[in-house]
Amino acid sequence: MATVNFTGAVDRELLKRAKIIAAKTDTSVNALFNAELRYLVETFEAAETAGNQNYRALLDFSLGRIDDRVAMAALGIDSEEDLFLLLAQARLPMPRLSAAITQGMVDELNALAA
User: Fold this and answer.
1) 43 burial class (0-12, 13-18, 19+ CB within 10 angstroms)?
2) d(CA 64, CA 67)
3) Smallest Cα–Cα separation from 56: which of 68, 73, 43, 67?
4) How far apart are the C-alpha atoms of 91 and 77, rounded to whole Å?
């Protein structure tokens, strides 16, 4: 399998933690990254091939593209606990707030300081 180099940016603290895991598991950060990226792509593609949009909904929720209510509706569940369990089973990170929500929070804090 041919490989290609690419440039990306990662949080300094995250890279430090990844290096520790790599050292503890006698591997490299590159190998860890490749394994996780492969898992993400293959899982997404398998779900898409099967016509299952559940992984897409979980990924969108994890990336902050949709909120918990939209994700739960898409998945047909009514419990946030179930949503977070599915997220963990899919090996996806906890969700991030969307840019709009984050900006709204910043605006509210700025308004309090004024």
Assistant:
1) middle
2) 7
3) 43
4) 19
The size of the chain, in residues, is 114
Q: Cα–Cα distance between 25 and 19 in angstroms, integer?
A: 10
Query: Alpha-carbon distance 73 to 57, whole Å?
Result: 10
| Cβ atoms of residues 30 and 21 within 8 Å | no
CA 17/CA 19 separation, integer angstroms: 5
* Cβ-proximal residues to 62 (8 Å cutoff; 6+ apart), any chain: 87, 92, 93, 94, 95, 96
- Amino acid identity of 17? R
- Give yes or no for a contact between 56 and 44, defined as CB atoms under 8 angstroms apart: yes
Q: How many CB atoms lie within 10 A of CB 55?
A: 19
Which residues neighbour 2 within 8 Å (Cβ) at sequence distance 6 or greater? none
pLDDT digits (tens, 9 = 90+) for 52-103: 789 899 999 998 889 999 999 999 999 999 999 999 988 899 887 777 888 9
